[in-house]
Q: What sequence folds into this?
């Protein structure tokens, strides 16, 4: 059963071994060059530094704009949010925008979310809100409803035509103060199946863990004087 | 087929005995000195005996025929030889001391005197190492008492925890060169190829005079087998298949010497591992597939007066990170932990395809070594090594984004020179031996990402040491001193610099401003280390070792400048540039006994760490406690100095009654750690671990030898000492893992084929491991079967041919 080889074979094997070793050393050099090129890769990440809310009163008065900004990104200085003040008895069209202001000029992430509307959803919650993502409470200062669906930003290829949450309708109904929380959820397909489902907002309202990752979660102070 | 082999084994054991009245006697001598070796365990088939003071042994009532004789003693390589018994037979055995091998074959291991270790140490080699083939580096080492694994979130990877310390507080040496990778992240696994090892030694305990600062937990030495000196071409091939993750591993190593150039030897080796996602008992761990490969080669040339060796190897790993690790707000993170089962688990699959998020790492190591024998003076060793560690981390991103989100490249040049002086006789039977050396390092790290995390840096360091020992037959005393200096210049970008100085964590006086608005911050460190140890061979079969050390560790770049969010954890991490040297005062006591039927090793340790750099939460009511980020309000963790104590014990035993085919082995390890400053506990300290196993060795039958069947259980306790403020979830409950293994060797002429089958977590227990990053999100993998096939082959043994005219290099 033993494998015996002639000395000639062994010699050729020795040379083969050497050749392989040299090839490996050569491969190293090649690899280095490749890595140098590799360094020029973009390191784009989903950096979002700013969430801008524009509340445009239906009927044409001046819009209320409030932003959360963390201008130095994660770490360093803490981010901060502008207070929101809405007029009681007014209905607003709310537009939500996401920006990366580390770039100059600022990068508009909103367009990318529109492109991938079927994998993203903005959820509005907080103590100032009654809406799909909160428990029913007629005492809250504002009422929230989605004002867009996926088909607004492109063909709706997967499943139902679900809300995206870049546009909302906010009704300031009673005087009060509370938090207004904006969450952007990234829900990419998992093994070919969509993770974005119709009951996402209801899950948040029920305090259940959500699928996907959080891309943004910011809290504003909202007052209806 | 299997049935017939089993039947044959039974028939083999039940066959009527032939008249067994022969005596086998002989003497075991040290191959290098010719001195007798006392207390060596000689086994012949099922019988065993120890050699006496003159190295002599006798075995009675031996049956005629061919027998496998093995001789074992910890300081020597296990000798295996075939003995043909026909009437009373005499055998001479030459045992090769391990130290001599280090001197002779492994060219440059700084301070290859292999000074007797005065701390607890364990070496995996031979059969014990063979059984780990196909496992990752950390898992291979984890069989040693006192060593566990800090399991990373990426498929199958992890790093060893030695006596409660991991990552930067352990030294890993590959072939005598300190491994230089990104070791600061909790999920950064060391890029070491366990297939390349001929032996893996774990030295437990603080301090390493020879290998440099930073060894708080211990040192792991991964040594490749020596290059061949005998003429011929031989090698090893392995095939391993693992059921969980449908994993396949293949490995090949070929060694040879050159016919026309005596003293010239070469090696080529490579291996590849492909695994699909692992499965926990109730669901697959989505996206935990991995791909790992290694390739390397060595060339060596050896004459009587000098040796040189060149080697190069590349390690590549790409490992998916479990889908269950989501990036979430602190509230949702808590909900996920509360839920106990990952969200969307119904859609989880086990696939070979690796998707975002994943890590990709390439590690290159090129080394040149030389050794010169200086007549009468001693030996001079020199090593130069270059390591290039390139790590890329890919996060889940929008489709328009390509490439990695984090890229780190660490390039390290090291040079070491050591001089081993020839033993100096002080008086009759009393010798002075020792080694002295210097080493230097130049390291450059480049970090690339849109977010801040750690700065780029250039580090220069150097050290010098002297290690001397007095040796008598029954007593050894060793002392060493070391001095290290290091200077690191970190280049902070504008945003990072303003953020760190703005929050008061960096003093602008330590930095000079750069034209781009950032800061260039230079921090020098220097500190001495020392050790003192004794070894007493108190009585036959009893050895006592004691060790006292004081060792320094300089803060790593992340401990000074970390500024960002830890991937997958809702924690904002901050460094502190005011951190200074962390000093460990260590002590340990080890007792080993070796009797005819019982071998034990017991070790206890107590370490006091002055200004232990600890990553802990800032008080939430303080100015830095909470940080508003775009993904929610994060708890801030920072590196702060606390005084800490680590203490614990390990015990291991083997009961192997002579003439019995059954042996019992067990081990226990316990570590305790306390933050003395705040009177609290520290996180990620492994809970108590207890193991018990039974092994039955097959009698030799047909041509099958070294056959065994073993069953073992490991109980891992619940960690009752924890600090929930510094963690996200309480420690998981205790768990019990059942394992079993069987193996056999089949000699085929010059080749040896060995087969092993091993089962892990056979009860398919659902459990979570306190020292695993997965524990917050999902269960650990369930049962697995591991089939291992290894072939030791000799392609050519010219000694057997007429042409074979070769010089043999013996001392």
A:
């Amino acid at each position: 059963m033993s494998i015996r080889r002639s000395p000639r074979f062994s010699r050729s094997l020795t040379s083969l071994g050497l050749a392989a070793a040299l090839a490996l050393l050569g491969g190293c050099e090649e690899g280095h060059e490749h890595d140098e090129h590799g360094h020029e890769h973009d390191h784009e990440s989903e950096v979002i530094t700013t969430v801008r809310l524009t509340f445009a009163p239906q009927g044409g008065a001046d819009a209320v704009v409030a932003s959360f900004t963390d201008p130095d990104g994660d770490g360093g200085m803490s981010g901060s949010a502008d207070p929101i003040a809405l007029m009681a008895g007014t209905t607003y069209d709310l537009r939500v925008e996401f920006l990366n202001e580390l770039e100059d000029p600022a990068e508009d992430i909103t367009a990318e979310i529109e492109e991938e509307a079927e994998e993203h959803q903005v959820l509005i919650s907080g103590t100032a809100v009654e809406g799909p993502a909160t428990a029913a409470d007629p005492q809250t200062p504002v009422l929230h409803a989605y004002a867009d669906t996926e088909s607004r930003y492109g063909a709706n290829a997967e499943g139902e035509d679900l809300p995206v949450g870049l546009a909302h309708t906010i009704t300031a109904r009673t005087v009060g103060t509370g938090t207004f929380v904006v969450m952007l959820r990234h829900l990419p397909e998992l093994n070919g199946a969509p993770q974005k489902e119709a009951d996402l907002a209801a899950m948040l309202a029920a305090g259940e863990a959500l699928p996907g990752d959080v891309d943004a979660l910011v809290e504003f102070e909202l007052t209806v004087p | 087929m299997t049935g017939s082999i089993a039947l044959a084994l039974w028939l083999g054991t039940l066959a009527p005995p032939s008249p067994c009245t022969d005596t086998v006697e002989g003497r075991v001598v040290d191959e290098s000195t010719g001195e007798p070796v006392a207390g060596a365990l000689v086994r012949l088939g099922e019988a065993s005996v120890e050699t006496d003071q003159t190295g002599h042994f006798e075995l009675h009532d031996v049956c005629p025929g061919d027998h496998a004789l093995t001789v074992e003693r910890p300081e020597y390589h296990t000798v295996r030889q075939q003995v043909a018994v026909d009437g009373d037979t005499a055998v001479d055995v030459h045992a090769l001391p391990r130290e001599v091998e280090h001197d002779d074959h492994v060219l440059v291991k700084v301070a290859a005197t292999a000074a007797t270790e005065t701390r607890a140490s364990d070496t995996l080699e031979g059969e014990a190492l063979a059984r780990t083939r196909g496992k990752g580096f950390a898992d291979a080492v984890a069989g040693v008492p006192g060593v566990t694994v800090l399991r990373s979130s990426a498929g199958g990877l992890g790093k060893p925890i030695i006596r409660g310390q991991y990552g930067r507080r352990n030294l890993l040496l590959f072939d005598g060169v300190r491994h230089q990778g990104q070791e600061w992240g909790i999920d950064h696994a060391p890029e070491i190829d366990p297939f390349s090892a001929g032996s893996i030694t774990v030295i437990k305990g603080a301090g390493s005079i020879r290998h440099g600062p930073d060894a708080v937990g211990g040192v792991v030495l991964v040594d490749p087998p020596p290059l061949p000196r005998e003429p011929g071409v031989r090698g090893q091939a392995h095939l391993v298949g693992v059921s969980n993750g449908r994993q396949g591993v293949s490995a090949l190593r070929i060694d040879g010497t050159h016919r026309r150039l005596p003293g010239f030897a070469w090696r080529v080796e490579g291996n590849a591992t492909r695994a699909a996602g692992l499965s926990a008992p109730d669901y697959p761990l989505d996206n935990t597939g991995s791909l790992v490969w290694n390739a390397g080669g060595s060339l060596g040339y050896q004459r009587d007066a000098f040796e040189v060796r060149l080697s190069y190897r590349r390690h590549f790993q790409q490992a998916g990170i479990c889908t269950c690790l989501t990036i979430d707000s602190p509230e949702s993170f808590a909900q996920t932990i509360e839920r106990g089962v990952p969200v969307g688990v119904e859609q989880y699959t086990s696939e070979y395809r690796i998707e975002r998020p994943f890590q990709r790492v390439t590690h290159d190591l090129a080394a040149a070594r030389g050794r010169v024998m200086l007549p009468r003076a001693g030996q001079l060793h020199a090593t130069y090594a270059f390591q290039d560690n390139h790590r890329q981390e890919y996060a889940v991103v929008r489709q328009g984004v390509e490439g990695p989100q984090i890229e780190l490249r660490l390039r390290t040049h090291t040079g070491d020179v050591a001089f081993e002086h020839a033993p100096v006789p002080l008086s009759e039977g009393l010798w002075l031996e020792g080694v002295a050396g210097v080493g230097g390092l130049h390291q450059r790290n480049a970090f690339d990402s849109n977010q801040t995390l750690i700065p780029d840096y250039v580090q220069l360091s150097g050290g010098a040491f002297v290690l001397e020992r007095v040796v008598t037959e029954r007593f050894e005393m060793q002392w060493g001193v070391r001095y290290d200096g290091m200077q690191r210049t970190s280049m902070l970008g504008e945003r990072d610099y303003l953020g760190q100085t703005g929050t008061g964590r960096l003093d602008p006086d330590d930095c000079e401003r750069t034209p781009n608005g950032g800061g260039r911050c230079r921090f020098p460190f220097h500190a001495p280390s020392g050790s003192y140890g004794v070894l007493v061979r108190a009585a036959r079969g009893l050895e006592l070792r004691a060790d006292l050390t004081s060792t320094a560790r300089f803060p790593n770049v992340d401990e000074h400048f970390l500024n960002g969010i830890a991937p997958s954890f809702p924690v904002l991490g901050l460094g502190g540039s005011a951190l200074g040297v962390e000093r460990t005062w260590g002590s340990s006591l080890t007792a080993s006994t070796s009797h005819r039927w019982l071998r034990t090793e017991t070790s206890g340790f107590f370490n006091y760490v002055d200004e232990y750099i600890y990553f802990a939460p800032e008080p939430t009511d303080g100015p830095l406690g909470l940080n508003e980020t775009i993904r929610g309000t994060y708890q801030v963790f920072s590196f702060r100095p606390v005084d800490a104590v680590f203490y614990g014990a390990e015990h291991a035993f083997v009961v192997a009654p002579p003439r019995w085919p059954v042996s019992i082995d067990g081990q226990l390890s316990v570590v305790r750690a306390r933050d003395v400053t705040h009177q609290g506990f520290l996180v990620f300290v492994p809970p108590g671990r207890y193991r018990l196993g039974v092994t039955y060795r097959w009698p030799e039958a047909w041509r099958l030898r070294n056959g065994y069947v073993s069953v073992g259980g490991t109980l891992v306790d619940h960690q009752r000492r924890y600090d929930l403020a510094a963690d996200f979830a309480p420690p998981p409950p205790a768990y019990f893992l059942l394992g079993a293994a069987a193996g056999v060797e089949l000699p085929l002429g010059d080749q040896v084929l060995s087969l092993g089958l091993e089962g892990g977590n056979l009860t398919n227990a659902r459990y979570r491991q306190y020292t695993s990053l997965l524990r917050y999100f999902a269960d650990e993998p369930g049962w697995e079967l591991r089939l291992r096939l290894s072939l030791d082959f000799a392609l050519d043994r010219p000694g057997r041919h007429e042409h074979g005219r070769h010089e043999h290099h013996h001392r």
